[in-house]
């Protein structure tokens, strides 16, 4: 059985999907981009600020599901430009304990929704 997870503290889906789905003890999140949930505007002042907004959006989804970044077992990071990797990684590292950080892949892509520079999805387990 699946439970749909949505929160007003993260951007509303812009298509036929939900922010996350909880099945059993496993949470599968949709990718988050740097939309500010309060204003609906993209945060693109810098790759660092964009990444921070993505992770704050993800934090809101995890919180709604009763989880934290400590519950995350896998992340997928999609970037428009791999040259931004070190800056993204620095911000990402502030949200995870290095000793218990999840498995991860980072993939450079041709484009992302709304032409953002980074999108992140996660799998978490209670």
Automatic annotation (TrEMBL):
One of its GO terms (cellular component) is cytosol. SUPFAM superfamilies: YjgF-like. GO terms for molecular function: deaminase activity. It holds the Pfam family Ribonuc_L-PSP. InterPro entries: RidA, RutC-like_sf, YjgF/YER057c/UK114. It comes from the Bacteria. CDD domains: YjgF_YER057c_UK114_family. Belongs to the RutC family. This is Reactive intermediate/imine deaminase. It comes from Lutibacter profundi. The lineage of its organism: Bacteria, Pseudomonadati, Bacteroidota, Flavobacteriia, Flavobacteriales.
């Amino acid at each position: 059985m699946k439970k749909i997870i949505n929160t007003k503290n993260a951007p509303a889906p812009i298509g036929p999907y939900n922010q996350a789905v909880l099945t059993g003890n496993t949470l599968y999140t949709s990718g988050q981009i740097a939309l500010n949930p309060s204003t609906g505007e993209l945060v693109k002042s810098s790759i660092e600020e964009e990444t921070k907004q993505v992770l704050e959006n993800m934090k809101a989804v995890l919180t709604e599901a009763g989880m934290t970044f400590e519950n995350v077992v896998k992340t997928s990071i999609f970037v428009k430009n791999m040259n931004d990797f070190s800056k993204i990684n620095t911000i990402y590292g502030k949200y995870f304990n290095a000793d218990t950080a999840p498995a991860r892949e980072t993939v450079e892509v041709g484009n992302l929704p709304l032409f953002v520079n980074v999108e992140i999805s996660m799998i978490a387990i209670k």
